[in-house]
Amino acid sequence: MLKKILAFALALLVVASMAACSRDGEDDKEKDNDGQQTEQNNPEGNGEQTPPDTTDPDPDQTPEQPPEQTPDVTPPADPEAGMTEVSEEVYATVTVDLRSAPEVSVDNVVGILRYGQRATRTKVSEEWSKITYQESEYFVASNCLALYDASIELPGDDPVVDPVPGDDDPVTPDTSDFVTLDTPETVYVVAESALNLRSAPGMDGEIKLKVGFGVAMERVALNNTWSRVEYNGVTYYAFSEFLTTDDISGEGYTELAAPQTMYVTASSLWIRYYPSMIEAAKVPYTVLEGLHYGDAVQCIAISPDSAWARVLIGGNEYYVGYQHLALVAPDGGETTPEVPVIPGK
């Protein structure tokens, strides 16, 4: 009996202990929740909840304005930055645009510098050169200029070197494979920079003279590679690849009394610096982007054989095939008074 009483008392003690643990846990949880709510409503921790501020702002009080920010204005870049000052005489190795600024744009082309024309370079960078030409300043692509060499005869220049034929050549050139022409023919230089005229055919022939693009001479004989030519009464040998029988001088044309508006009848028509069918791959800078059917140009002169027309485009002179022009607009379609074609650098 005593054992039963002790067991019953022990069971009551265990139940009471479990109930106390359960109440302590619930109390702690409620306490934690109340503590979090108190801290959120009253960050100062004084046990009171702070009501939200619902007071209207004072209408007489000027709201605080953020400080004014000065706009970041970047000054325009100096177009001549990075250019080096120089003072040197240069000449155009191709016909190239004269520009008012050192950048490629149709809006800054103000003229052209033709092959062989000389100017004074005052500033230079890898891409652009600033030059003085006819008392005005322009920008030109640097890769279209070269330092002037007095030994190169350029179009319009008087011959600088005038060798006299004589017995100063120690070895008589071997021309046994040359074919003499029945009638000498006029040929023109199409070398991009200058063509060497030599004392003998072959790369070991002494260079006697350098002549520029467009220079005319008489060819009297040739083999598969070289031509024997006569220039200013002197016999030389020149590489045949850089000679053409196409007349690229543009001389002997019939000038019109006034520019005549004419229209393109071909689907496309090349614009050329020289009146010649020289392949673009051989002398790439002689051919520009073409005109199109119905485009209008101003014709100012016609070649003696009526094969070429000298025309004005964008204020500059070029050449196109005359047989592809007509006085009347094709199909009566709308045309523009003048096509604003501007050559690249």
Would you summarize the structure shown here?
The chain has 345 residues and is mainly beta.
Structure description:
This protein is mainly beta and 345 residues long. Among the domains are: 84-148, SH3 Domains (SH3 type barrels, Roll); 150-245, SH3 Domains (SH3 type barrels, Roll), CATH 2.30.30.40; 254-332, Roll (SH3 type barrels). The radius of gyration is 45 Å and the shape is elongated. Strand 12 and strand 13 form a beta hairpin. Residues 20-48, 158-169 and 335-345 have low confidence and may be disordered. It contains one helix and 22 strands.
* End-to-end separation: 123 Å
The biggest sheet amounts to: 5 strands, antiparallel
Strand order, sheet with most strands: 6-5-4-1-7
Using only CA atoms, what is the Rg? 45 Å
- Provide mean pLDDT, rounded: 76
What structural category arises from helix and sheet content? mainly beta
User: Per DSSP, what share of the residues sits in E-state strands of 2 or more residues?
Assistant: 35-45%
Q: What do we call the CATH homologous superfamily of the domain at 150-245?
A: SH3 Domains
**C-alpha geometry:** elongated
Query: How are helices and strands ordered from N to C?
Result: HEEEEEEEEEEEEEEEEEEEEEE
